Amino acid sequence: xxxxxxxxxxxxxxxxxxxxxxxxxxxxxxxxxxxxxxxxxxxxxxxxxxxxxxxxxxxxxxxxxxxxxxxxxxxxxxxxxxxxxxxxxxxxxxxxxxxxxxxxxxxxxxxxxxxxxxxxxxx
Length: 123
Prior knowledge:
The protein is of the alpha/beta class. It has a single domain (3-122), classed as 3-Layer(aba) Sandwich (Oxidized Rhodanese, domain 1), CATH 3.40.250. It has seven helices and five strands. A five-stranded parallel beta sheet has the order 1-5-4-2-3. The relative contact order is 0.21.
């Protein structure tokens, strides 16, 4: 399954690529903070419970001609969404660390630096 680091997403966005950032977190979480220009499809709870029907019901809202980066709280539930999207033919990746990772990257935290090191060693 394809993944992308927060720094990798930031590089793609600033280089002129236009990935579609799909935030699957609940509406309230999205309202408290999200990646600029991301799109909220609040299916996190359903995916966490093991059902993907609600995500499949929203596939017509996703562009088929752009890569899709899936974001959740910490990157775990987003993997399920990424698997569904990949199965449906989308070029989909999970944002490693989810919004927690993104916020750590943006704030240059020690926790993010350590996670980033682990990602580079495992990938």
